[in-house]
Amino acid sequence: MRLGTRRSKLAMAQSGLVADAVRRVTGRPVELVEITTYGDVSRAHLAQIGGTGVFVTALRDALVRGEVDFAVHSLKDLPTTQPEELALAAVPPREDPRDVIVARDALKFTDLPRGARVGTGSPRRMAQLNAYARAHGLDIETVPIRGNVDTRIGYVRKGELDAVVLAAAGMNRLGRIDEVTDFLSVDTVLPAPGQGALAIECRAGNTAEDAALVAALAELDDPFTRAAVTAERSLLAALEAGCSAPVGALADLTPLPDPLQRGESQADRQIVKEMRLRGVVGTTDGSTLVQLSTTGPVPGTHDGAVALGRELAAEMLAQGAAGLMGERAH
């Protein structure tokens, strides 16, 4: 089977993990097919070229043309509308959704010197870091950057920036988590909708072969992760915001009582009854944030997860969220 993947080290690492899992459940060999996307070759800022969705189009085109059998995406890069001809066959268990700091001299975020230059290409991160800095008397300058993990960390190593912000999941999958100098609590910075999760996409079952692959890949699906990211992406869609808008969202299961908190088996996790969805929208300078949350039963259906996201989005829009997002996606 041919697995379509972006060429970056992180994409290759993520796709390699999925390839191993697919080999296990199907017993069939999997070949990685490297595909260059527009987002990989353009040096423009993501917001100018259509947001993180630019990493997805070339992979989806290859799927539709039959050049690959399935593709792996970072779920946070997926546009919120799903093409009819493609199926989101599996969302495997989520990695750590938090953002992290890699800073000079092993500094924590709150220990950065006055005027520290912090690099990130994400308006969402800028909005929340600047808001936190304003509220806690920190003096930072957020600097827009692009590039892969090596490029970004290189800015710190060369002394051009004091710190850069990255996703914990990517650092974990690259085996570089030891380079992280600080983990940002989700109470400080809410992640991007879907951050830390992967999406495995294939052609929708128009043929017996397609249907068989959809069923095989579904073995890798984690219902808790899928419910959470569906709620987060529903919030993003209802805000009419694109992947590069300054929107953070996280659906998590309310904490388990202590003895179970350490257990990770499905049996323990089935006891969880509630899901909390948090959302934030802000201006990139951090001067204004709309941050709200809602808690409800863990959605048992796709429609239930979508409803949770829409409900919170409606509350955020009523609080003025629309005016904070700049250009809204349509």
Quick synopsis:
The protein is of the alpha/beta class.
Return Rg in Å.
Answer: 19 Å
Number of strands: 13
Based on secondary structure, the structural category is: alpha/beta
Number of H- or I-type helical stretches = 11
How would a textbook summarize the main sheet? 5 strands, mixed
CA-CA gap between termini: 36 Å
Helix content: 25-40%
Strand order of the largest sheet: 2-1-3-10-4
Mean pLDDT: 87
Strand percentage: 15-25%
In N-to-C order, the SSE pattern is: EHEHHEEEEHEHEHEEHHEHHEEH
Anisotropy-based shape: globular
Instruction: Pick out the low-confidence regions.
Output: 46-51, 258-263
Describe the model.
- With 330 residues, the chain is α/β, with parallel strands linked by helices.
- It has 11 helices and 13 strands.
- The strands form 3 sheets. The chain has a 5-stranded mixed β-sheet, sandwiched between helices. Strands 7-6-8-5-9 form a 5-stranded mixed β-sheet, with helices on both faces. Strands 11-12-13 form a 3-stranded antiparallel β-sheet.
- Helix 8 (223-238) packs parallel to helix 11 (302-318).
- The two termini are 36 Å apart.
Topology:
Layout: E1 2-5, H1 9-26, E2 31-34, H2 38-41, H3 57-64, E3 70-74, E4 86-90, E5 99-103, E6 116-119, H4 123-135, E7 140-143, H5 149-157, E8 163-167, H6 168-173, E9 182-184, E10 198-203, H7 208-217, H8 223-238, E11 247-253, H9 258-261, H10 266-269, E12 274-282, E13 289-297, H11 302-318
Parallel strand pairs: 1-2, 1-3, 6-7, 6-8
Antiparallel strand pairs: 3-10, 4-10, 5-8, 5-9, 11-12, 12-13
What key attributes describe this structure?
330 residues, alpha/beta, 5-stranded mixed β-sheet, 11 helices, globular
